Amino acid sequence: MEKKEHIISILVYNKPDVLARIAGTLGGKGYNIESLSVNTTTQYEISKIVMTSIGNQATISRIENQLQRLVDVISVDDLTNVESVHREMVLVRLDLTEDKKDQIKKAVDDNQWKVIKSGEHYVILEITGDKAQIDLAMARLEPLGIADITRTGLVALELKN
Amino acid sequence: MKLKGSQILLEMLKEEKVDLIFGYPGGAVLDIYDQLYKSKIKHILVRHEQGAVHAADGYARATGRVGVCLVTSGPGATNTVTGIATANMDSIPIVVFTGQVPTTLIGNDAFQESDITGITRPCTKHNFLVRSVEELAATIKEAFHIARSGRPGPVLVDLPKNVMAAETEFDPANIKIRNYDVTHKPVPKKLSQVFEMLSHAKRPLLMTGGGVILGRAAGELTELARKYQIPVTGTLMGLGSFPGTDPLWLGMLGMHGTYHANMAVSHCDLLIAVGVRFDDRVTGTIETFAPNAQIVQIDIDPSSINRNVVVELPIIGETKATLNDLLHFLAEHKYAPDKSARKEWLAEIEQWKEKVPLTYCQNGEIIKPQYVIEMLHKVTNGDVIVTTEVGQNQMWTAQFFKFDKPNSFITSGGLGTMGYGLPAAIGVKCAFPDKNVVDIAGDGSIQMNIQELATAAQYNIAVKVVLLNNGFLGMVRQWQELFYEKRYSHTDMTYAPDFVKLAEAFGIIGMRITKPADVEKALRDAFAVDKPVLMDFRVSREECVYPMVRPGESLSEMDLGTREMIN
Q1: Tens digits of per-residue pLDDT, B36-66?
Q2: Do domains A4-82 and A85-158 have the same CATH topology?
Q3: B302–A71: do the CB atoms touch at under 8 Å?
């Protein structure tokens, strides 16, 4: 069976150690979490976790089954094959060194990257997009010399429930 | 009504109809023990916290009810881990209450602090740290509900000392917990598929597991097998879910299963597996497991399906309700097995059975362990609840004792915990004081929790220990004989206490039996007294458990052992 990245959306009760339970269950059974994003929903007592994992359909089904066994898990959905939108966010700091300064300013203008803070010696960009867009931006940022970077896990939302 | 946390705990135990707990006191649970002092709930003081958990586990397996234990924080809590993992692997409903340092000290590396919810997260069905007295009652109610509902399992509740001392309003009639939807939904489409498969099958086979016992479905399974003349094999955990003396019973399958059971699995064309999870000790090489069969798997837990063996037809549901639905469906649609095909299939199985019967050779002056087990069955008429330790003693019991009733064979199947049998037997005997309860032990395993003989002596819990003493860690030695050219690395246990004197030192009866001719009488004498007895049977030192599927082999390729054994 074909291995690919699956996006799994998990609704959980917002308990102190619910993330540890999920990470522990998957880690303990030998499944890998590629990316992870957690926050509360409109109801404070319920959180949504969006994680991605690479595997074939059988492996992903086993992951879903293992998660479903957890008492604090309300539902588990694989969004890979349902209509959904996906976003990631990257914050990047580029240092405005003498030799790169002009190149960086031009790239920021050309790509219409969002500058969220800048100073004499640095600029911090916020880039959001789906995986392909982020990968493209990363390829363009690389030659400019990334001073520091932080990247969120993927978030995803179905078009309908 | 305002009550302290410790009082609420005991009130909630009453609400849950708990009349017996196994425990060991300590600093963090002093408030609870002070309440117990005034309570009607019976408390059995074990000698090690692992023993408390195994006793609660044995109690749960024998009764089908939730077993309860209570220990202190830190080492008291960490000592429960093996017991909890044992219960978890076999899906046994227990609730373990652990003391904890006051909430203000949690995280400070306080005296006798341990992050027991963190430690037991992977080996409990669920666990709780109770952070305030207000959430205590609901948490306890939830813990019992989780332990017994769906696929059962152990639940740990960690109780900080200040929460036990704090007061709050308590109203047992008004405790709300989350709703868990575990209702059974019938699946008519799948039942008609089973009907179709059964109608086409020439060689159907039932495989019964622990889920049939936990799901109280032994009656339904037995009816299905007998009504339609379907032969039955079972996993270690399934023993007793179908009568071991019934002609349709083939015995256990798997690594130390019977030859005819394994041949039947390897040749059947339809395998209906109920409440099993296809553990590696059961399947042999996965690729060649039941190679000619379509497999139907009935289980309550979706994570047990397609995990090891890929099946044609999974049915997720309670074993009892599903089998009931299936029985109704088959009757309604007038399923009738093809009589001549069925006769041929049963005859074929009978031939395998005759070719390689389950046997051993009791000649000479040395006691064979299998002989002791057969004599135990004879002396008790099989009317006994048997626990075992782990290793050869466990496999011989599974092979040679014919269990007719569910909840009568109590063993650590999944985790394989040495030291399980004695405390588990104590738990069983506490639940059924009028029943004969026996721990079939090895000399290695018994030493792992031998301190519990003091518990048995203190309360006169009249368990009988059948010690099959071969002076070896027998099963490990067997593997060293077979796969490591008899290099017996650290398996010789000849240096051991004098078990008879040891029994007497604990205040129970000790016997030593060295001749085959004395076996039966010793057993009769042991059962004649209403006291704990340890019988030190000196058995053949290098007896092996046969037949055997070697690791990495198929079920159809069994090592039958030496012919001398079969003569």
Answers
A1: 999 999 999 999 999 999 999 999 999 999 9
A2: yes
A3: no
* Cα angle, residue B91 at apex, residues B90 and B97 outer, rounded to 5°: 110
CATH code at B15? 3.40.50.970
- Report how far residue B412's alpha carbon sits from residue B391's, in angstroms, rounded to the nearest whole number: 10
Q: Verify that B220 and B169 share a domain, yes or no.
A: no
> Does 3.30.70.1150 match the CATH number of domain A85-158?
yes
- Catalogue the active-site residues of B: 49, 111-112, 161, 475
> Residue B485 pLDDT > 70, yes or no?
yes
For the ranges A52-61, B68-77, B442-451, which has the lowest average pLDDT? A52-61
Residue B157 in tokens = 């509740």
B180-191 mean pLDDT: 74
Domain span at residue B113 reads: 2-174
**Phi and psi of B559, rounded to 5°?**
-85, 115
Residues B275 and B410 in one domain: no
Give the tokens for residue B159: 């109780």
Residue of A nearest to B316 (CA): A65
For B180, phi then psi, to 5°, come to -110, 120
Q: Answer yes or no: is B314 within a domain.
A: yes
Within 119-158 of A, beta carbons closer than 8 Å to B belong to: none
Q: What pLDDT is stored for residue B566 in this prediction?
A: 43
**Which residue's structure tokens are 């849950």?**
B16
Nearest-Cα residue of chain B relative to residue A25:
B122
What's the fold here for domain A4-82? Alpha-Beta Plaits (3.30.70)
Q: Report the share of chain B in percent with pLDDT over 70.
A: 98
